[in-house]
Amino acid sequence: MENFPVEVIGNILSQLAVARDVVIASATCRKWREAYRKHLHTLSFNSHDWPVYRDLTTSRLEILITKTIFQTTALQGLSILMDDVDEFSASTVIAWLMYTRGTLRQLVYNVMTTPNVNILEVCGRQKLEILELSHNSIPGVELSYQRFPRLKTLSLSYVSISALDLSLLLAACLKIETLELINPDIATSDAQVTIELSSPTLKSVYVESISLDKFILEADSIERLHLKDCSLELFELIGKKTLKFFKIDDVSLIQFDTGETVENLEIVDVSNFTFIWPKFYQLISKSSKLKRLRLWNVVFDDEAIIVDLETIAVCFPQLSHLSLGYDLRDGALHYGLQGSSNLVNVFFLELGWTIINDLFPHWVEGLLKRCPNLRKLVIHGVVSEAKSQEECRMLATLTSTIVRLMRKYMNVEVQFEYE
């Protein structure tokens, strides 16, 4: 180790990242201390990494962090996550940011201060490429000087910001590619809560725990869209057929308008969602390049309609992964399995139930017949601890059916997962 160049030692210390470990390791010898001062690129202060942080007084903790940061000269990544710690002095935190902002590429910031520190004001027009803010407020955005010319990833978690400032902030990130919004506190001047965001460079959008009347997103380069635990009356996506990944999980959505953005979809993942299958199918019907389709814990708004394999087989010829998990109903089994077209490219099949009934084994058998090149079958199920006699009978029937089918489909790997 003593023959390692000081730059390599700096990289080793940067891999450690955790401030306590870095300081201990740097005490090894003079060469390691030099690497710490001149070649340390990443430093992390996290109250979950070292519980002692919570036992220190605020002033003592501020001094400890200040001394650790001010001994470095080349930090590119700084993470300060202080949960369950008293509020810091704003002047001290500003000093940390002012000292490091000239070299920082990544800032992860979750610090409560008195008064609030406007990160945009301190770090604007610098070299930041990744900015993750949590439990803070953004009082305003001034495009004239709060620009982020290199920022590619922006994550806002439990951040208070107005709808207008959020739109301005996105416009201030000239090269942004990834946007995450997790449970933001959105303030609007109108009774109707509306967000309108626009970015020509945005490629990935993740939105969680947000409640809005309207969410309009204009992103000509978007490739990934994930909505989770949201309540939206209208979500409108405006783009140029670049979307490849679309996922919604536990979302209440009345109207969803994607225009012509879904023609090149490759992955569709829908779970814990209520929809009318014909309308949803119409939404993705032009996605002839679809490779993965997952419909899990979905509820069909029309009791007479259920996903049918003929439609899937004909419209999605490149499909390789198919996951279906919902409650089968009397009369729906025949409709779902009607037709004769096979899913010739499907090699992974995932099936599940929340309430098992006698239809499930027949459904599994019908699907296996339609997937001639299947290599793996995964069956998920919910089994209550206090099983009724009827439930035990149905489980026994399912097991017998699967054993019989596996003797017929010897090349298929079968996996059971019960909850």
TrEMBL record:
Residues 3-35 form the F-box domain. Gene3D superfamilies: Ribonuclease Inhibitor. Residues 127-229 form the F-box/LRR-repeat protein 15/At3g58940/PEG3-like LRR domain. Pfam families: F-box-like, LRR_At5g56370. It comes from the Eukaryota. This is F-box domain-containing protein. It comes from Manihot esculenta (Cassava).
